[in-house]
């Protein structure tokens, strides 16, 4: 088995993710089907990880293994096993999603990198055990702080809640069957660090309480499959009002989504992508088209993704 | 049946409640067994509600029906039915709990008042429908704003989450079987309005996020019966640090409770009572004794209550 792998290598996929889920800022996220990172990995003679090819990134991702999110995550796995001076691995990366999009691009790279190395070595770690290594890679892109809200759903699939980033205390949140996501990426450039910088370091106790009440309602609604409760709860009174200004047409898109029947609609990650959740794929299609129509009218190039919650997370294929 | 009631009247009980449940400030609460308000109610000739007797309140509760929480709530029921000038009801109130204690005393009065009138009239409203009337009574005591975190569990029983006070959007939160509460009331005077005034109207985004993550963890832990997750999540980084100073010995009591095996321990309501949750009655006894020992050592008079979560709420008996 390992001999076969050594020759032909393996191929893994890590999906795009929606994080900052309305009232679940920094703690809730989920994976979708379709966009994501593909890594082909195979053994080579030179110890360490070497990036031989990057496709789909328009020259914007580094080949330097110490700077590339995927290889940093992969190296963290090797290093933990004490094999970084012994084993050599080549990565061929195919980015099948936009980056700087609020769709968890760096998390997808990091997860794919850690997952690929783990798979190639015969799965010494469980997916959950890989989270710290993937996070190490993701930190490169996010400026040194761990944010599991993309990494965790990308790796594990489904919707996740991270109670503590430091303790990797991550939990699967049950979602009602049929829940569908419409995710639209407009070609508006937002740097994650700018989206962070725009946020006030303070908020009010009143807003905190309102946001907490909605978070509680959202979690109860998801558990019970109470779509009306999800609809009433999926709001963001703290982050969205501050970041909406970075996304031309945000409120028009949001209104269009809600009028088309979405349960809720807000900014995906740090933007500019906007997600909406709907009760089924038919509504999600309609919602997606309504969102798309707004950006088309505003002459902002955009790309629409319609997907169920991806329960698989990172996969080998 | 109504004739029997008219002669002998009825007797109801509304339990004490723990609110501001750690990271669930203003949104989570639960009812306990034991302390609470008893109201005996019977019809009389003079329209409106009349308080004929108040026991257990050391003369501190008003007989004036327009100022007493119980009668205001009861009147709200009568008024909603358009019968306030037609039907007369006498209340005899027995307060079997301390007030100004952080144990939801005014909520117990309000709930008992609304529930008693409803029962006497042959239950025109469901318990859930009574929430607005009980809240109208509770507002008298809490200074004009609605806080359902005591009223809702007192009326409905169990643990509740109020997503929106304005919309009476209240939900039962599933709790693991066996969960037990140790509640200690030290004779330290705190006025709810002082406990409110001490709170900063602002907090930080960092604390908001940490508190939200713990709230999410607590709700998932409760749903899944994951006691370790409840233990890790039942914390309050916003309110408790500000209010602890009002309660002599708070941190000593908290430490004693945690060392004795509590899952979590924080201020009940606006204090001075302190609650701890434990995985079963045996641990809850031990935890309660440890909390009691601290206050005894500090020569602060106290009263300890050990109880399962009260799933009944207001009852007729």
Characterise this structure.
Two copies of one chain form a homodimer. Chain A has helices spanning 2-8, 69-80, 105-120, 127-142, 148-156, 192-197, 205-224, 227-233, 240-243, 250-259, 281-297, and strands at 10-21, 24-44, 48-55, 88-96, 159-164, 169-173, 180-186, 202-204, 264-267, 274-278, 302-308, 315-316. In chain A, helix 2 packs parallel to helix 3 (105-120), helix 3 packs across helix 4 and helix 4 packs antiparallel against helix 5. In chain A, the strands form two sheets. In chain A, strands 1, 2, 3, 4, 5, 6 and 12 form a seven-stranded mixed beta sheet that branches. With 317 residues, chain A is of the alpha+beta class. In chain A, strand 3 (48-55), helix 2 (69-80) and strand 4 form a beta-alpha-beta unit. Chain A has two domains: 2-173, Ribosomal Protein S5, domain 2, CATH 3.30.230.10; 180-308, GHMP kinase, C-terminal domain (Alpha-Beta Plaits, 2-Layer Sandwich), CATH 3.30.70.890. The interface between A and B is large, with 38 and 38 residues. Strand 8 of chain A pairs antiparallel with strand 8 of chain B.
